């Protein structure tokens, strides 16, 4: 039996084994996935098992607890999926408007990309700030829980063959310039200009366990929050509230529900979109 076969309804023991796997990861490595949304997490675990031809979660657990490469593969599989430069043009259009209307009045705005989905998400924001003439007075804090992904983000570069597609995405998002002007070329790869990279501060930070560390005028968490189970989601929403300045803006994955933590403290920025201004 391979990993793919265990995705059927007969895999009744998977839930218990996944509980043990997550507990082991927490005790051994300090990463707490126990309160993540279970269906998505299970799909990623079973996908990793299929890739490695492992018949049971227990076999995966044994490798994860005793082999650093297997542990790294699991942590990567359970981490936020990467974002690419301007890969969601409609969201970028909304972000452009937020930056213009909601951050313009702040003397020294701070932006938090919580569980940043790789360097290209931060680079997209840095380019937008430059186009609004705000990059010199705005600091971006990009945080990632996984140390390996953090190191990759700090040293990131883009293959030149992707730039044509990125230019197309950029134009769809409302850009009017030549995207390549924001990059320097190093061989066959492109890196964001130093003046823009310097506005991004990278740090290791865990949304599940860490406390508020600053006050921000804008907090973005549009990918990672979708992976969290109900209780963890409410915990992180409170963390964001504690970290957001009054009249600051919160951009998340889906609309706040009436029962969400401190939902009454926010007003929608756009109709039918998950952007909110803190008013209380």
From TrEMBL:
One of its GO terms (molecular function) is S-adenosylmethionine-dependent methyltransferase activity. It holds the Pfam family CheR_N. Residues 25-250 form the CheR-type methyltransferase domain. PROSITE patterns: CHER. This is Chemotaxis protein.
């Amino acid at each position: 039996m391979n990993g793919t076969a265990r995705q059927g309804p007969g895999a009744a023991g998977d839930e218990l084994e996944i509980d043990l796997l997550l507990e082991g990861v927490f005790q051994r490595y300090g990463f707490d996935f126990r309160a993540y949304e279970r269906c998505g997490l299970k799909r990623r675990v079973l996908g990793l098992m299929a890739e490695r031809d492992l018949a049971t979660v227990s076999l995966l657990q044994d490798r994860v607890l005793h082999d650093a490469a297997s542990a790294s593969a699991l942590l990567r599989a359970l981490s936020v999926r990467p974002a690419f430069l301007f890969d969601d043009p409609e969201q970028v259009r909304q972000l452009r408007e937020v930056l213009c209307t909601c951050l313009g009045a702040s003397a020294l705005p701070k932006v938090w990309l919580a569980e940043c989905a790789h360097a290209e998400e931060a680079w997209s924001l840095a380019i937008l700030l430059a186009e609004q003439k705000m990059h010199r007075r705005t600091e971006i804090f990009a945080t990632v829980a996984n140390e390996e992904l953090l190191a990759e983000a700090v040293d990131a570069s883009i293959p030149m063959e992707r730039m044509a597609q990125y230019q197309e995405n950029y134009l769809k998002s409302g850009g009017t310039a030549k995207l390549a002007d924001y990059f320097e070329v190093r061989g066959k790869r492109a890196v964001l200009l130093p003046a823009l990279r310097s506005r991004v501060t990278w740090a290791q930070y865990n949304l599940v366990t860490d406390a508020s560390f600053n006050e921000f005028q804008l907090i973005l968490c549009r990918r990672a929050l979708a992976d969290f189970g109900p209780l963890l989601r409410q915990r992180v929403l409170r963390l964001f509230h504690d970290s957001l300045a009054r009249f600051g803006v919160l951009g998340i994955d889906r609309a706040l529900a009436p029962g969400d933590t401190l939902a009454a403290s926010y007003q929608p920025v756009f109709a039918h979109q998950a952007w909110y201004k803190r008013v209380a």
